[in-house]
Amino acid sequence: MKLIKQGFIYYVLATILGGLLLLFYIQGDSVASSLDATGWLFFITSCFSHAAILLLALWLVFFLPWALLKLRRLAITLFVTATSLLMMTGFINMQVYKIYRFHLNGFILNMLTGPAAGDIFDFSWQLYATEGLMLAVIVALCIGGWWLSGRMFQYWQKRYTVISILSLVGTLLIANAIHVYGSFVFKPTVLKCVKLVPYYFPLSTSDLLEDMGFERNVMQVDETTGGDLVYPLHPIKTDQTLSRRPNILIILIDSWSRRALTEECMPNLWQLAHEEQWYQNHVSCGNGTSYSVFGMFTGLQPSYWTAWDTNRTSPVLVDELLKQRYNVRTYPSASLVDPPFARMLFGHVPNLRIRTAGNTSYDRDMNIKEDLICDLPTLKDDNKPFFAFIFFAHFHLSFLFGEKLRSEERFSRNAET
Fold this sequence. Notes:
- The structure is a single chain.
- By secondary structure, this protein is mainly α.
- Helix content is 56%, strand content 5%.
- The protein has a 3-stranded parallel beta sheet with strand order 1-3-2, sandwiched between helices.
- The termini are far apart.
């Protein structure tokens, strides 16, 4: 029991060290200047509770079983070594995050350990020396922590154990409670902090709260400040000499293959492509629906997704259309709530259509097609220009061809596969 008691004391000391290390992630980050009291409380409790959970896993795996087997040396060696490696990884990850604004992942590890690592990264010997010295200090602190736990052992009382457990559990409950509230009302000062803590996934119960009948009142923020996102970089200049603004129609087909745009398979779009401008050198900013649509409307890379969402930023394109008195219409097959395009891209659009009735994706695609065709005469006759965004989603889901299409030879092979 003496070994387990000392191991618990070391766990508490290591948690304090790990929490302090995580606190340094905010140093020099623009998020720090925008946090309020709630944001700081969430960030601080998140750092220490996250460190406590990670180190608890190490304590349960690398220390407790061997301590119960009375393998003192093995238990101490494994626990101190695992703690040192965790702290070193946290420090290296902090350096990566300050440069790239994302945490260590497989992509970075492949570049660091690959055969061409020397061609990609060219660090000076001063940097190696500085980083090596800092890592040595961290290892020394981890090893010295065991010595300190031994010194504290004789003064450690049962009430200190109770206080430590209650404190760690308290930080865990406070951090998750704040995030439940912050994620439900989209409080930016809370949501911004989540990305700072590596591999941190606090509790979120927004869907459950809505199902229980709670009203989701989104917190209002000052959108003029921009938070930690500077967008746009320069004021937008528009041509004021145009007597009439052009109508704009975006036809978006999710998961559609360019190879299907042939005269045989899609004769109408094929004809439209040859009658109008056809951009065949388009480069998407992502290979998924969320990031691709986000980049199309904002011109930003996916790494800005979180900052964009938490700052409640609106695309310059949509804002300028509204400023020019465009009638903005959306025709979504899949809901615009998830992914949150309604909030992130069309948050300023009044009376936004976010969903379409229909039992299947095929039915919804047919419905939005008919709705757009039905609305076009009214939109064209209106004295205002229009912007229409129709979003087909059937190709992203299961292929349910109608009997007419299934019977045609050109679609039979695709229908079978």
